[in-house]
# Entry
Amino acid sequence: MNKRTAPLAVLALSVAAFVSMPIAQAQDTAASTPKQIKKAQRKEARAKKNAELKQLEQDGYNPAGEQTNYPQNLQNAQSKINAQKAGKPAPASTP
# Structure
């Protein structure tokens, strides 16, 4: 190949790959900047943490409540969640 045909071949393959890509995917790729990707990742992580906190609160943990038994209250709620995920009965909580 001469020097001029090699870049043309690469360009032709690139265009062929882009044309065969679905339109929505092409738009998402073109519209996603690194800043937008990081923002989406932060939003996803925040939603996951909020869901975990909500589950802990449903199982008895109160982050705004009395903090004298803080570690034990949190551990009890976490053990209930782990037991539910494993399909086992929840262990008895200690005061």
Notes: The mean pLDDT is 76. The longest helix spans residues 34-58. The chain has four helices and no strands. The radius of gyration is 26 Å.
